[in-house]
Design brief:
4-stranded mixed β-sheet, about 50% helix, 10 helices, alpha+beta, globular, Glutaredoxin
Amino acid sequence: MDYAARFETGLPYQAFLDKYANPQERQRWDDFHAIVSLTDDQQALLKSWAREMNVLVLAGAWCGDCVNQCPIFEHFSAASPKIHVRYFDRDDNPDLAAELQTCGGARVPAVVFLSEDGKFCGRYGDRTLAAYRNMVSQFAGAFCPTGVDPDASLTQQVVSDWLDEFERIQWMLRTSSRLRQLHGD
């Protein structure tokens, strides 16, 4: 799949919600967006990035996992002019959904990271490690050694997990010999 060409056809966050979310779904996205916050250190990190990063997100406005993660990406892109996110509805893009299957299913959100010139850098989703640890602890009970910090906000843990992945891709881009040669740094 030509992810670079596909990225160009995606929708920004608000346009995606305007097109796909019904009023109740939109309210859920807006409510979650309002409770997400980035620390000063997280904002400084995002502002420090040098490389452009294109992020393709396969999502569904109806999807609870998307509601609890995609607004985080909007906060990242607001903090860093280097992050460009485009959204695609899973049901309107069956070829993309088939390409980005997770564990044999069309799970969302599915995120593809691209360099500024459209080269594939990585893929992440449908949930972060903190989210899966939380799910496992609920299934397995209090004695399951998942690594969940019961005093930490799950939302903040998920923000941190996603920021770690965005940062990993940024450092991949920053240290790429191809991109360093292109930018003369």
